[in-house]
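Input record, target 12 of the design panel.
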């Protein structure tokens, strides 16, 4: 169902030199990946996030956490980027400075062709030592979880769990991109989890035009200059077409 792109927004994007984008789970929903809060449906419905997405939960039950991520890793590997991911990869080519910051851990932006991707919350395809935090490429696939070859500690997904710090270099680059852009697009995120949710507010404070793309209202909506109330897979191809790129 096409939506109306405000002419003023098209004009702002056409004139912009630097664009920064923040994406959340919503941009991958149309690829068939449940949004973060929906991920606990079906088989995992009776576990709470504190058991599955925290280092304490991992320490308590490493096998359960490892298997939950292994199941999500398989699901992610089996889906394709959608028109929203692909439109962002096209949009990137149009601007001299385009930064895509994502909270997602599914690699779908990279698989769609986006190059300048900053992963604030890690990546489910990567595995690291739970003690040394070094990323590991080879490990025993039938152990659950496998152990680090150099120190013997359990391996874990290279993702940010609740209560853990974000990778400092990625966060610093994301904050700089928020402060230096002309237009900031917040796409498919409930804007509840900090520090990612602070990025559009930093952009607005620095004078950028803030645009939200989300079928629902969020905590960001009343700070946004434009709120496009539709799915990313519908809006982003239309934005590209309005800019004469589609
Ligand atoms: P959420 O599940 O909190 O929010 C997903 C948002 O996407 C909601 O606002 C939906 O309305 C919206 N949405 C759904 N379908 C959409 C579509 N087709 N197009 C556009 N928007 C759509 O996911 P996040 O905001 O990404 O953190 O959650 C942020 C972080 O909270 C996650 O990265 C995770 C979680 O704690 C960590 O794992 C550290």
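The sequence produced for target 12 reads:
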């Amino acid at each position: 169902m096409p939506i109306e792109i405000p002419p003023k927004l098209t004009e702002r994007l056409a004139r912009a030199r630097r664009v920064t984008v923040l994406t959340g789970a919503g941009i991958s929903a149309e690829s068939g990946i449940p949004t973060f809060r929906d991920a606990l449906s079906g088989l995992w419905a009776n576990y709470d996030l504190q058991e599955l997405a925290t280092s304490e939960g991992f320490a308590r039950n490493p096998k359960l956490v490892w298997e939950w991520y292994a199941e999500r890793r398989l699901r992610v590997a089996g889906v394709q980027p959608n028109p929203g991911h692909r439109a962002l990869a096209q949009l990137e080519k149009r601007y001299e400075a385009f930064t895509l910051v994502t909270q997602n851990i599914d690699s779908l932006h990279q698989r769609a062709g986006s190059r300048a991707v900053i992963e604030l919350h890690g990546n489910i395809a990567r595995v690291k030592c739970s003690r040394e935090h070094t990323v590991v490429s080879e490990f025993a696939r039938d152990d659950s979880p496998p152990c680090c070859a150099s120190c013997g500690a359990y391996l874990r997904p290279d993702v940010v769990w609740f209560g853990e710090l974000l990778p400092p270099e990625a966060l610093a680059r994301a904050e700089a991109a928020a402060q230096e852009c002309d237009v900031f697009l917040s796409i498919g995120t409930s804007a509840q989890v900090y520090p990612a949710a602070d990025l559009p507010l930093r952009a607005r404070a620095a004078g950028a035009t803030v645009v939200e793309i989300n079928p629902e209202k969020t905590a960001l909506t009343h700070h946004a200059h434009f709120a496009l109330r539709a799915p990313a897979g519908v809006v982003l191809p239309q934005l590209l077409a309005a800019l004469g790129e589609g």
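The first helix runs from residue 7 to 15.
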